[in-house]
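Hi team, as promised in this morning's meeting, here are the two structures we talked about. I've kept the exact order from the run log so nobody has to guess. The first one is mostly here for context; it's the second one we should focus on when we meet again. Sequence first, then the predicted structure tokens.
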Amino acid sequence: MNTQPTNDENSAWKSQQAEKDKAADALAARQPLLANSICLKCTSHRSIVSGKGSVFMLCQSDSTPSNWPKYPPQPLTQCRYYDHG
């Protein structure tokens, strides 16, 4: 039995994830502390919304060292790993 997702299922999942990411980014942009963070403009970030509605910026940059925080303190106004895409 094949348990691998089909191309249609994979595409649907990616589309749902993109919508969730877009909604999280929109929510983050309305947060006063996060509105000025460069993380929102970085292509390596992902906005994570907790069950209580808190928003966290997850850094997914491949160029960060191992001691770089996964969730940098916000607002971040400068970052050597910033990727504008």
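And here is the second protein, the one for discussion:
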Amino acid sequence: MSSIPKEVAARGPFLERIEGGAGEAGQAIDERLVAITQPMGAAAEQYRILLHRLRHMRALRGEAIQGGAVIAATSSVRGEGVSVTAANLALTAARARDARVALVDCDLRRGGLAQLFGMGARPGLAEVLTGKTEIGEALGRYPEGHLAVIPAGRVPGAESASLLAGPRFAQTLGLLRTLFDEIYLDVPPALATADSSVVAHKADGIVLVVRAGTTPREQVAGAVRSLAGAPIWGMVLNGVDPARVPAPLPVVKGHLTAGK
């Protein structure tokens, strides 16, 4: 666990690119990473709003959080956009200010961040937790701001919950807290595996992703119950039809006015 790049350990400028990934010339960037592809769009603005609300939640916790804040993104079932949400949130955080941000794929069964960032096959969290590699070798550097991405890696699915519940995961999070200001975790669905509950209770805050018009309320309630005792900071409604979003109130001479 001691193989940390010197530039990371020194907390200086780093994260030039992800080797063999989207950071190299000619590699396409996934269009769903709107924090990069459409930074001035409505979706990117919503991620900025979410980021500042989460930072406000952290500020309310004050000294209760030691080191970098750990925020986990999960959902009730698969297909609700957790990986895209976590990736855009981490990218937004890394670009918003001089903050060092880590994005970790904790879905050891079906991790998707490596594909989303075009990282290809490389060691990840699974190899760190099984002792096959050290965290410094698993850190993938991305050009957009001070962002590091740790993919899921490869491990038999049956072992994932025990690995995440083991001491090496707790040690890894502790080390990341000393290296980064904010750590975002892409976590498996709460109702699908035991992994989500294991990871959620190690995070400072949880964001529950819900797909609009698709996820039943009972399913969301079930996910909340399964995370009982974990600090849920809020929910993200994903896939909202823009036509159903109310227009903002007009501003006249610095005052909000009611619409007609």
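Starting points for discussion:
The chain has eleven helices and nine strands.
The first helix runs from residue 6 to 9.
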